[in-house]
């Protein structure tokens, strides 16, 4: 069976500073995989390397068996990778509806062929339907995060990359987001690579990888997540 995502010996630098060190990681179709680790260890750097905003110095990235090392971010998006950056970067002065439309740009034919927002998104995040005409910037932090995830899903990705989607968000919306991610995996069989600090959300994942100083130092099934691993990699 082909891996949905396979990373081999990835090394990424910012100028002279060596951040990612020989990272090996894989995600299968239908799987939720969580990347854990303290602040500053390189989790965001890994996701940016995967979507192509940063280029690795060494190593390989395969999406559904194809090497995508040389592909630009928009090409990776077309091939089925979606990325929700840390800090929910929605466009504040556009309406919710316009923000959602932007998610359809990576579909075949782009926005000229795709003019209707697929309503499955309102089953996942009902609040977006009520707020379609509001400005993105007028939503609460949790609602903006839901909007950012919905926008990514409208590109019909095969692999969704989520960078700390529940950071700074009210607990009830954290649960809504967890449920939506579980639901979309169940309904569509996509794979999800999640960077997360909330233990409850981490436990929803099938497997975890723990990062320290840019390297993967532990991994396994989240059902076997030990207190030692939690204390070492999740407590801030
Ligand atoms: N644009 C940048 N230029 C230089 N160093 C950076 C830049 N962004 C992040 N770093 C450094 O790279 C390391 C990893 O950062 P990051 O991937 O954001 O960590 P995490 O997401 O795990 O908190 C940190 O030491 C950080 O200071
Ligand atoms: Mg980060």
UniProtKB/TrEMBL annotation:
Keywords for the protein's UniProt record, in alphabetical order: Amino-acid transport, ATP-binding, Hydrolase, Nucleotide-binding, Transport
Domain of life per record: Bacteria
Coiled-coil ranges from the UniProt annotation: none
SMART domains: AAA
Enzyme class: hydrolase
Ranges where the ABC transporter domain occurs: 5-236
UniProt cross-references to Pfam families, sorted A to Z: ABC_tran
Enzyme Commission identifier(s): 3.6.3.29
One Gene Ontology MF term: ATP binding
InterPro entries reported for this sequence: AAA+_ATPase, ABC_transporter-like_ATP-bd, ABC_transptr_urea_ATP-bd_UrtE, BCAA_Transport_ATP-bd_LivF, P-loop_NTPase
The UniProt record lists the keyword ATP-binding: yes
GO annotation (BP), single: L-amino acid transport
Protein family per UniProt: Belongs to the ABC transporter superfamily.
Protein name (Swiss-Prot/TrEMBL): Putative ATP-binding subunit of urea ABC transport system
Organism: Prochlorococcus marinus (strain MIT 9301)
């Amino acid at each position: 069976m082909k891996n949905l995502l396979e990373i081999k010996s990835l090394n990424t630098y910012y100028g002279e500073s060596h951040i990612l060190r020989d990272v090996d990681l894989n995600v299968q179709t239908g799987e939720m995989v969580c990347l854990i680790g303290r602040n500053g260890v390189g989790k965001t750097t890994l996701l940016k390397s995967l979507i192509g905003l940063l280029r690795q110095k060494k190593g390989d990235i395969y999406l559904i068996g194809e090497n995508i090392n040389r592909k630009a971010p928009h090409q990776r998006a077309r091939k089925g990778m979606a990325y929700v950056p840390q800090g929910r970067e929605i466009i504040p002065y556009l309406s919710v509806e316009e923000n959602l439309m932007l998610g359809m740009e990576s579909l075949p034919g782009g926005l000229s062929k795709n003019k209707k927002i697929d309503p499955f998104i309102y089953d996942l995040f009902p609040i977006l339907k009520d707020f379609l005409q509001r400005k993105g910037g007028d939503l609460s932090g949790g609602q903006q995060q839901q909007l950012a995830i919905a926008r990514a899903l409208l590109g019909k990705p095969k692999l969704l990359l989520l960078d700390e989607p529940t950071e700074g968000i009210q607990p009830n919306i954290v649960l809504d987001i967890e449920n939506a991610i579980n639901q979309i995996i169940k309904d569509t069989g996509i794979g999800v690579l999640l960077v997360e600090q909330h233990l409850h959300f981490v436990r929803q994942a099938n497997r975890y990888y723990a990062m320290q100083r840019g390297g993967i130092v532990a991994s396994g099934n989240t059902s076997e997540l030990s207190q030692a691993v939690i204390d070492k990699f999740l407590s801030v």
